[in-house]
């Protein structure tokens, strides 16, 4: 019994040490300070010690550096606890990316009735620095001026002055919009302009978000760029989906059913056929291309045929004349033999 109690005390002491390390009790923090910490701050401390699987995150993202701007809704409909979950989602997304001056750069645009650029692409070039900046973001006020936020991101956040790479670098420009409401301004025209400028837009709707507006904002194909979750409590589940999309994974390498050639296109793929074949209606299998043989009428054919007919007729007449001559000779010989 004593040995059991001793083992239990030992296990509890290990658990206590682990808790102390998680909340930094061994340093300057006291219990009252820890209780005052926000959930996001505690989560951020935990993120400092979390190690992600490199094979599933960083190494796959290095092949596709991004200029990535998060556009987040912090209007009154987003409760404080829900906004903290958005920040956790952003921090988790940053953890999945390969961040650096020559890799992915991150910016955040915060909006409600007004729009605020929290930090630019050039401001923070390490994961820790970005996550600390995210942790400091505070919600704004009422209103949902999504169109205004998209325009500000396009005009100010995605510029070379703000840290975006020039077009000659061929770095993908990506915007991820997170909202739970219906925009109070027009989003279709400004979203179209942003996409035309080369910005790929993903729209994430939560709870009360207007799904039609999400479709108006997002890039095509919509099935790859529009996401919806019922609550902020499950928004973190989108992290793995975005990791597959943003890290530039080869969709063909992950498996396909193309008969001939698979072509990766973002997070999806399409099929092509080898030369001499055409793609069937199922968009997967190929059939040999049918070669149409077209007979061209020779305009000289009629004249050639008439010439041949005339030549044949002449030959037949010659043969008939010769046959008649032979016949006369035979008759003459028969007459001579009859007289003898």
Q: What would you say the CATH architecture of the largest domain is?
A: 3-Layer(aba) Sandwich
Output the radius of gyration: 40 Å
Number of strands: 10
User: How are the strands of the biggest sheet laid out side by side?
Assistant: 3-2-1-4-5-6
Net shape:
rod-shaped
Main sheet overview:
6 strands, mixed
Tally of contiguous helical segments: 12
Number of domains: 2
Structural class: alpha/beta
Report the portion of residues in β strands.
15-25%
Low-confidence stretches: 14-62
- The helix content is 40-55%
Can you tell me the CATH superfamily of the largest domain? Answer: von Willebrand factor, type A domain
Oligomer: single chain
CATH class category name of the largest domain: Alpha Beta
